[in-house]
Amino acid sequence: MVTYIYSGLLKNGVYRCLYIGLRLQMPLNMIVTLRPLCSVCEKQPRSIAYHRYGRVYYRSRCNSCIRKQKKLKPQRPRWEESGYKKKPTCDRCGFRAKQSILQLMVYHVDGDLNNTELRNLKTVCLNCAAVLTRQEPLWRRGDLEPDS
Description:
Blueprint: E1 5-9, E2 14-19, E3 22-27, E4 48-52, E5 55-58, H1 63-67, H2 78-81, E6 104-108, E7 121-125, H3 126-134
Antiparallel strand pairs: 1-2, 2-3, 4-5, 6-7
């Protein structure tokens, strides 16, 4: 099955299509399907989920990735991409994680998950994280210092 991906309408009802890196110009009746590519393998078209009110809805993966149970790779958190590393102790109560670093989490002081400045990020244990969500944080905007 040949799959073309719609790129734009040119003159006289001719569409510019992308087919695995090749640019083709074909009339509208020559386009077989207008499916987006699989988000996992990025080679095959996504499978059809369902039709509703004349519109087609697609899954996020192609049929072969679904059969092989290939999954999307989890995205790295924004704080990790910005260079922040979890400390082995809680910044609020001093709890030291002995077994697993999963007992600690990164807390955003201003509550904005998109703000990944080092001044905005603190490592807290899960108990302190539950307390901080219910009350005002101990840190104020002016009191923060970057971790070294």
